[in-house]
């Protein structure tokens, strides 16, 4: 993870993102000192979305999962509000995969999720895919509002719960094509 500098890694800028909050959340790269807060935030968000699952019992798994994501090239961006992480997104631009999006329950409905989705799109303009729990209607509506469409159905390999594969088709420019 990046050192806490408060700035986005210049390797891929997020300058095209409209950040409408004058004194509200700001995006930055996650840093090592964020880890405990991000795990707590993830547990709180999922506990709200799917209360029948023991997400506290998945803390160690999720901490390792974040390491694996970053080791594979994913970027983890944090929306910080009042000096604390209010949400985060993990995106692997090379694979065009959005693996995690979590917003603290106290911040849900504030626009942070939309800000994070826009950041993900900025990091992967050719398009994105993600898997969402079929029984998470709030998340499905959010992604639909942001142009994601359903591709296929599946199952979460850990929980066995039904999932949907969604895709955002990108900006219409094929950035992988040689110029």
Walk me through this protein's architecture.
This protein has 179 residues and is α+β, with helices and mostly antiparallel strands. The chain has one domain: Aminopeptidase (3-Layer(aba) Sandwich), CATH 3.40.630.30. Helices cover 27% and strands 26% of the residues. It is built from 4 helices and 7 strands; from the N terminus they run βααβββαβαββ. The chain has helices at 35-49, 59-71, 112-123, 137-145, and strands at residues 26-29, 75-81, 84-92, 97-103, 128-133, 149-155, 162-168. The strands form 2 sheets. A 4-stranded antiparallel beta sheet has the order 1-2-3-4, with helices on both faces. Strand 6 (149-155) and strand 7 form a beta hairpin. The longest helix is centred in the N-terminal third of the chain and has 15 residues, at 35-49. The protein is globular, with a radius of gyration of 16 Å. Residues 1-22 and 174-179 have low confidence and may be disordered.
CATH architecture call: 3-Layer(aba) Sandwich
Question: How widely separated are the two ends?
Answer: 33 Å
Which bin fits the share of residues in helices?
25-40%
**Could you please say which CATH topology applies here?**
Aminopeptidase
- The gyration radius over C-alpha positions equals 16 Å
Q: How is the biggest beta sheet arranged?
A: 4 strands, antiparallel
**Spans where pLDDT lies below 50 across 5 or more residues:** 1-22, 174-179
Structural class by SSE content: alpha+beta
Query: Would you count the extended β strands for me?
Result: 7
Domain count: the total is: 1
CATH class call: Alpha Beta
Helix count from the secondary structure assignment: 4
Question: CATH H level: which superfamily?
Answer: Gcn5-related N-acetyltransferase (GNAT)
Shape: globular
- How are the strands ordered across the major sheet? 1-2-3-4
User: Mean pLDDT score, rounded?
Assistant: 85
Beta-strand content bin:
25-35%
* Run of helices and strands: EHHEEEHEHEE
